[in-house]
């Protein structure tokens, strides 16, 4: 009973173990991605704008392309919120009793993580290109150069942290529900009270114990048929 799992987590109702939670690879990757998003957002928001000696208006250090800075700030802030949301989902995930709901959560993790990996790839290419073509006269002192390079570097690293999250979520999806009893108990609890185990004590068995050769055989057949694994909640293919 203790080994039963569905999509990488045990049966609902267990106690939350913070040590085990923070040792999980998916939790580590989410925290790392969360930290990367803070670095990218902070670098561009704090040092991503500069102006010339004779200019009042500030410009984006990435080739004076305002879209580059906006993209980095937006991606960093949204990735931060997304990491927080999925960390909260990971904490709540073992308490989800429905196998179908767990499946939806894992599929959402796969899709969202893959999406963010792609978006960080686009962001890395965009920021790197704009930094490469930045004119020296636009920023002769190279102000914010370290921040720009840090944003580009951590955008590159974010590609792999989010891709890793998508891969781990796919591994959890492949695990599926490895216990029929899990889905039987939580998907349809009324099936636990099925009358199959009691049918062998009714009818002809009580009235004619002496001639119960055929009746006893029928009761045994009914009992076996009730637990032969062919019921609707005994196996689920995903």
UniProtKB/TrEMBL annotation:
InterPro entries referenced in this protein's UniProt entry, alphabetically: Marvel (IPR008253), Synaptogyrin (IPR016579)
Region feature (Disordered): 193-238
Protein's membrane topology: Multi-pass membrane protein
Glycosyltransferase found in the keyword field: no
GO CC aspect terms: neuromuscular junction; synaptic vesicle membrane
Domain MARVEL, first and last residues per copy: 21-174
Protein name per UniProt: Synaptogyrin
Main location: membrane
Subcellular location(s) of the protein: Membrane
Alphabetized UniProt keyword annotations: Membrane, Transmembrane, Transmembrane helix
Stated family: Belongs to the synaptogyrin family.
